Automatic annotation (TrEMBL):
PANTHER family: GLYOXALASE (PTHR33993:SF5), GLYOXALASE-RELATED (PTHR33993)
Pfam families xref list: Glyoxalase_6
Domain VOC: 3-115
Protein name, UniProt field: VOC family protein
Matches recorded under PROSITE patterns: VOC
InterPro entries assigned to the protein according to its UniProt record, in alphabetical order: Anthracycline_SecMetBiosynth, Glyas_Bleomycin-R_OHBP_Dase, Glyoxalase_6, VOC_core
Organism superkingdom: Bacteria
Length: 119
């Protein structure tokens, strides 16, 4: 792991939650419910709100999902499989980089993110 890539929360009403975070905590979230914080040396952390009925996190009872930044997604996924960790079979490539997922011992889906060059 090389850092935290993001924190994702389920929300029954993402727009209302984004407004609450802006208003009460001063988090500069977009109307769509996301903000990216920029840290030293190009490190970023994203806080994003997802609809209550999203299946992106896996099981409906999972309220949040940890996103961890990694150096080499393919190597890490292979290492995890070799250690008997549940690794989801799909990966995703996007303009933001490569994504893969594993599941912790309590069934929480964790997103693993290899950022695109320059991110």
């Amino acid at each position: 792991m090389t850092g935290i890539g993001g924190v994702f929360l389920r929300a029954r009403n993402p727009a209302r939650m984004a407004e609450w975070y802006r208003r009460h905590l001063g988090v500069p979230m977009s109307a769509g419910g996301a903000v990216t914080f920029h840290w030293a040396e190009a490190e970023t952390t994203t806080l994003a709100l997802f609809a209550q009925d999203t299946d992106y996190f896996g099981e409906p009872g999972q309220r949040a999902m940890l996103n961890l930044r990694v150096d080499d997604l393919a190597v890490l996924l292979e290492q995890l499989r070799g250690r008997g960790v549940e690794v989801l079979p799909q990966t995703e490539d996007s303009e933001f980089g490569r994504f893969g997922w594993c599941v912790d011992p309590e069934g929480n889906r964790i997103e693993l993110w290899e950022p695109a060059p320059g991110m």
